[in-house]
Design a protein that fits this description.
Blueprint: E1 2-7, H1 13-24, E2 27-29, H2 31-41, H3 44-54, H4 61-72, E3 81-84, H5 90-102, E4 109-114, H6 117-124, E5 127-130, E6 138-140, E7 159-160, H7 167-181, H8 183-190, E8 194-198, H9 202-212
Parallel strand pairs: 1-3, 1-4, 2-3, 4-8
Antiparallel strand pairs: 5-6, 5-7
Helix pairs in contact: 2-3, 2-4, 3-4, 6-7
Length: 215
């Protein structure tokens, strides 16, 4: 499969992407992951990205697109890929369209994961993340809690609430999403690629997405 996952913070993009990976071997790709991988590997593009990250700046779209182009040509993408939360803006979407055309890659569709603000707040405010950078397992204190002492069930490191997952931070993230990313829904609708999926129960969402996959 070759799909893009859209949705607000907390819509379940990461969870859905991982479940789809298990379905047919397609790989999950997020800009954060590929930036960190490039930096860790010390590639020329990674060194450029590190300069921005060390200054606390966001990597420019041009650099993200270069790294994305390199990532999409790696062997594990031949089976397919799931773009998790990318693109984030219409300019990024336009550049991605040009990139896919150059690589002769055709997307199956864009899956917009629809979820209410209350659900987002309920998910993110109760989320806990393993502090071990080599693990970063995600838990939910309501339905998938860590150990009783708050440590990770996989590596025994402490789990934490991320600074961007307090209610105030979540509200700010949602405002940014509606301003910059939500317009992509209209953009991809015009492109004829958009499909909407209710994202409440992961297994139900996966079942609906599978119905549209060309596999």
């Amino acid at each position: 499969m070759r799909i893009i996952l859209l949705g607000a913070p907390g819509a379940g993009k990461g969870t859905i992407a991982k479940l789809l990976e298990e379905f047919d071997g397609s790989v999950q790709i997020s800009t954060g992951d590929i930036l960190r991988s490039a930096v860790k590997a010390g590639t020329p593009l990674g060194k450029k990205a590190k300069e921005y990250m060390d200054r606390g700046d966001l990597a420019p779209d041009s650099l993200i697109m270069e790294i994305m182009e390199a990532r999409l040509q790696e062997p594990d993408c031949r089976k397919g890929f799931i773009l998790d939360g990318f693109p984030r803006t219409i300019p990024q979407a336009e550049e991605l369209k040009k990139l896919l055309a150059r690589l002769n890659i055709q997307m199956d569709f864009v899956a917009n994961l629809d979820v209410s603000r209350d659900v987002v707040l309920g998910r993110l405010a109760t989320r806990r993340t393993c502090c071990n950078p080599d693990c970063q397992a995600i838990y939910n204190i309501r339905n998938n809690p860590p150990k009783e002492d708050g440590t990770c069930t996989l590596c025994n490191h402490q789990t934490i609430q991320r600074a961007d997952e307090t209610e105030e931070a979540i509200t700010n993230r949602l405002e940014t999403y509606h301003q910059k990313t939500a317009p992509l829904i209209g953009y991809y609708k015009k492109e004829g690629l958009l499909k909407n999926f209710l994202s409440l129960i992961a297994s139900d969402t996966i079942a609906e997405i599978k119905k549209f996959l060309k596999v």
